[in-house]
Amino acid sequence: MAAPAVESKVATALRVVFRRVEEAAKRSGRRVEDVRVVAVGKTKPVTLIRDLYDSGHRCFGENYVQELIQKAPQLPDDIKWHFIGHLQSNKVKPLLAAVPNLDMVESVDNEKIANLLDQTVTNLGRRSLRVLVQVNTSGEESKSGVEPSDCVALAKHVKQNCPNLVFSGLMTIGRPDYTSSPENFQVLSSCKDEVCKELGMPECQCELSMGMSGDFEKAIEMGSTNVRIGSTIFGPREYPNKKCQ
Question: Which CATH number fits domain 33-234: 3.90.1200.10, 3.20.20.10, 1.10.110.30, 3.40.50.11810?
């Protein structure tokens, strides 16, 4: 009889994350299946992502366009990629052209980017692309995202004027240490209430992408349906250079 395969470190770490997700979901009266875990491989090699893929995980995220463009062709095409970083207009076409299995752009923060994504989907003959509107819930100037007071207008623009995009909810980013305060999460939750009311959208169809390695349990307790976990799964990030944009 063959010896059982040794589980990789990242697969073990993911199992621990899912256990924590399940416990947080229970505390909020939901199931673990109600929360998507996006494994963020920022600065990490393809080999580690492959290890996690081989353990059965299929949802991965990247922050930098060039890094995703380099990694995606080296990995199976049934991966559902999420782009979660700031998206510049000149990167839209290269991203969509190089990553046909891009499942979601979580960081739409203005009408220009929304329009470019919509037009590029048409030009490339891609299927509709799911998007989230990024909201700056902390008021930090260094953060991308629309002001909370502007999130309804941008969500409405995507839904009414971008037929090739599927408005799927809202997203926010924590502080540099990958944490946010409960106030940040409450702001995004309130934005969701306003968006659903204005768009006549069932709340169950409006996702909340909030929570990272340092705060995902609290985010789930406060309604997050999508958590973006990097260092807790893959270990501390490494920055050999800054030319990843």
Answer: 3.20.20.10
